[in-house]
Write a structure and sequence with these properties.
The protein contains 23 helices and 12 strands. Strand 1 and strand 2 form a beta hairpin. The longest helix has 21 residues, at about 35-55. About 50% of the residues lie in helices and about 10% in strands.
Length: about 475
Amino acid sequence: MESPLSLAEKYQQKSPLEIKEAEQKDSMFQSDISHTALNEEMKWLQQLIDMRCRELFSEEETEEFPEHKVPELPTPDDGSPYSITVQTYHLTEIDRVILALGIASSHYPSILKTFVQIEESSNAFAIEAGGEYNKVSRSFKPTFQTALFLLAGKDLSLWSQYSAQLITGSVLLQNDIVYNRSSAEFIHGKIELDTAYLNYFLSGQKPQLDHGSYFPGKLYQSDLTMDDIILENTVREQIKPIGHYIKALENGFFKGKGKEHSFKPGFIALFYGAPGTGKTMLAGILANTYGIDMYHVDLSQVVSKYIGETEKNLEVLFNRLQGKNCMLFFDEADALFGKRSDVKDAHDRYANQEVSYLLQRIEKFDGLTILASNFENNMDDAFKRRIDVSINVIRPSETTREALWKHYLPKNVTFESEDLLKHITKEYSYTGANIRNIMKNAAIALHDLNETVITHSLLSPYLMIENEKAFGKNQSRLSPFVRNSG
């Protein structure tokens, strides 16, 4: 049987530099990962497959096979990631078979060769054992029916028993360790192991909450603090309730039988304002300041034109983050939480049902949700009533713009005069993003020219670019700058 990937094997056929980088990366994870429990589980699965496949074509029902049927499950106690997973989630017999099949399908296909051989010699085999056979690649992908077949064999009462456990819900599916993306009957869905968990079992790299290709969000990491952002005082005051909420969540305000209120633990904030005013950055800074993880929702993976798919994608999101004390950030939230329209056709009716579902589902989420939108009025009225705080992340005032120009000014670089700084601050009502873009381009140009003074002629092309982006092509002209002769 093929052995798990060892650290030594990972370094084969690599250059010295690649080996050094790989060693540094591995040092971040657990060292000396034991694969004993995983090997034993694969041997157990191999025995189970061989036994059931022999039994399938046997005429005798009782004499050849012992009464207990299934070989005794190994005890995973080597302290490995695989053992920890089995113990942490209290995996049942059906869970263990499903997980073993998922690992075999992803990393040990030779264990499933018996299925391939019988499939090629008897088309009737797939009816009982399930699975999907690929004639071209000569590969076999196990389904949930395969797991039932291995555990129950020909015993119909056992089929019913294990099927009932699957219907109740596998802990592997609930925690997205294994997926079943089939739109057909449940047991015909392929067993698909999350790649992050396979890596965990082999290398010790523990999966983060945003693991897996089916999770429509990404961990947003920021090392910025409130000292790194320049906000209007009104905005600083408006975001204070978010900090109070996070502290209340951590201090158990929403837990305990004897609590003196009936407030739900979830909290919804709306950040609205022009593009580039720093809504995403502000959310990331709040998460970093209060020590919670922020997950940025990828709407391209959420919104679907197919009926029911958007809700299904959001369920994956909410279920995994439920109870994890984190922040959920929806950018361009209008796409999901926009106003419901008058019903003119079936599409409008479904779109309205989708918004209604979101209203109910987001209220059940027990963490912090921040929505970002360009306009407050784009949001559905019923949803606006459920928002705990609504914050207008306004365009910076003239005083704030001057602070932003100075904030992004590189070290050892100066403006040609104080008049130039006053001019661009007064004449161009930019957002922080506009100012950052201009200063970045100016700094690169100065580096290329080996100069340290920002002049109006140096800034001019970048001012025109940002004017067009911020205000439209008709506004791309520059305000004349007159140098003080004195």
